[in-house]
Design the sequence.
């Protein structure tokens, strides 16, 4: 049987094995009450109870009068008492099972709240990290910016070299093409 309230009961063992395992459990009455309440809420129980009432009514209506034990003339008093007794025991057992289910639901809700708080904290952390990355990226030099800065630095260096006479101007560096007398290329 499950040790925790939020763990479903084990259905692989027989009723007797579960009963033996629960003898050491301090909440064994609650477990038994929950099992009975579960059974009372099944279609199988409704079918069994309907068949029981039909057999009871038929027996006490159609059987020989010496075999009858509940008189139809008295309104099937014994059957009414039996059903009242069953209902008087079923109601508290169902309430006890509902209380146990509420305890399980409370544990589940608490776990869900804890997980939701953890998820919210993780989401807020990630949002802060994304914001920090956006800020950091706005300060990072882009490729075009770096190219422009390198181009400016290179132009400045070329100007200094030309001013120092270490580099010929660009027109002087181009190979001279053969030209005709009127200035047209050959």
Sequence:
């Amino acid at each position: 049987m499950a040790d925790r309230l939020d763990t479903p009961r084990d259905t692989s063992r027989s009723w007797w094995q579960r009963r033996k395992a629960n003898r050491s459990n301090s909440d064994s009455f609650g477990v038994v009450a929950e099992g009975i309440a579960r059974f009372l809420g099944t279609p199988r129980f409704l079918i069994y109870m309907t068949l029981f009432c039909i057999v009871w009514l038929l027996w006490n209506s159609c059987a020989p009068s010496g075999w009858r034990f509940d008189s139809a003339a008295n309104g099937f008093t014994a059957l009414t008492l039996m059903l009242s007794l069953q209902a008087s025991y079923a109601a508290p057992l169902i309430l006890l099972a509902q209380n146990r289910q509420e305890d399980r639901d409370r544990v589940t809700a608490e776990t869900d709240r804890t997980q939701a708080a953890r998820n919210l904290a993780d989401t807020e952390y990630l949002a802060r990290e994304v914001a920090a990355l956006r800020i950091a990226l706005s300060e990072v030099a882009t490729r075009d910016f770096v190219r422009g800065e390198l181009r400016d630095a290179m132009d400045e260096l070329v100007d200094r070299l030309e001013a120092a006479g270490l580099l010929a101007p660009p027109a002087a560096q181009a190979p001279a093409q053969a030209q005709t007398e009127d200035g047209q290329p050959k």
